[in-house]
Each structure stands twice: as C-alpha cells, then as structure tokens.
Fold this sequence. Notes:
alpha/beta; Rossmann fold; six-stranded mixed β-sheet; three-stranded antiparallel β-sheet; 3 helices; 22% helix; binds 1-O-pyrophosphono-5-O-phosphono-alpha-D-ribofuranose; binds guanine; binds magnesium ion
Amino acid sequence: xxxxxxxxxLITEEEIRAKVxxxxxxxxxxxxxxxxxxxxxxxxxxxxxGDLMKEIDAYLEIDFMDVSSYGNATVSSGEVKIxxxxxxxxxxxxxxxxxxxxxxxxxLKYLVDLFKYRQANSIQIVTLLDKPTGRKVDLxxxxxxxxxxxxxxxxxxxxxxxxxxxLPYIGVLKKEIYSF
Length: 180
Ligand SMILES: O=P(O)(O)OC[C@H]1O[C@H](OP(=O)(O)OP(=O)(O)O)[C@H](O)[C@@H]1O
Ligand SMILES: Nc1nc2[nH]cnc2c(=O)[nH]1
Ligand SMILES: [Mg+2]
C-alpha cells in the first residue's frame, strides 16, 4: 500500500537492523561503566530508539523530548519549539541524544546547548542518518548509522506531512507526492 508512493529505497530493513546491532555493540562498550540517560527526540526517533535500546547492554535510562521545527514543511523553519520537555533532571548525567536524522543541525544544536545549560556531565549524539549537505550550523554527531544524499527521505520514523513513519525502510517518495 505505502510502497506505491516510494520512488527508491535508500536503506533496506536488513541494512538498518545490522547497523543498529553494530551501534548497540559500540555503545555497550563505551557506556558499560556509566549510567547513561538516552533521550529520544520525538517523533522521528521512535523506531530507532526502540530498536537501539535493546542492543545496549548497560544501566540505561530513557526519556523523551518533543521538539519540532519542520511542521508539515520539508525545510526547517529554523525555530525550534519544545512541545514536550523531559521528566528527568539531566544535571551530572551522561546523556545520549537519540535522533533519526541530522539535516540543518539546528534541532540538535538547540538541544546540546540546552543540556549544557542544564549541566549535563557529558552529551553524545547518536543519529541513524546524517545529511551533511543540509548543514546550516556547525554540528557533528558522535555515532552515525548512514550518510544520506541531499533528498527529503522518509520511513523508519521519518515523516512527510506526518505520514510514512511506519515504513520499515528509508526511501524517497515519488515526485508527485511532495507538494514543493
Ligand atoms: O537537523 P534539522 O534540520 O534540525 O532536522 C532534523 C530534525 O527534523 C526532524 O524532526 P521534525 O522537526 O520534523 O519532527 P518529527 O521528528 O516529529 O518529525 C528530525 O526528526 C530531526 O529531529
Ligand atoms: N522526513 C524527513 N524529515 C527531515 N527533517 C530534516 N531532514 C529531513 C528529511 O530528509 N526527511
Ligand atoms: Mg518531521
């Protein structure tokens, strides 16, 4: 049903699964002596966070923050809004920010500055996808699954106008679906 709207699959379900296992093993090693707080950024990070946390064998806690700067558009408004804040105090904590994608970098820059201000002990960024060509601010992730080309991608948490988050792979929609 959704597949008819897809022009090209960029990253398959199997490739995502293998990468999530690999990232989980690395994070297990890096965080085995810590009590990290993984912060999933809603809504896009939901599938990645759900799969990744099961691969991290450490005393992990989770929380979520909902920030939004895109609305229904495919270009960042540049204004990051907090829709839902954390329930956890991050002071002194070792934080892992879990994201689906870094594009302009504005969402993560805002969050890193916020968690620094709130006096986290350490802040590391884990992102499934990185789109280096989209970058508008200086920001690098510490753990990256895949680089993606300069296209608006959907699936595995990533939406177009709130749809397609439930696709199990990452792809690009047919031109006629996008209204830009
Ligand atoms: O690097 P940036 O240009 O800031 O873009 C990345 C952000 O954009 C998307 O979120 P969005 O604001 O669309 O919210 P959503 O996760 O609910 O779709 C994505 O999940 C990242 O959080
Ligand atoms: N769905 C989706 N959301 C984004 N937010 C920032 N870049 C993207 C993208 O390529 N796809
Ligand atoms: Mg979105």
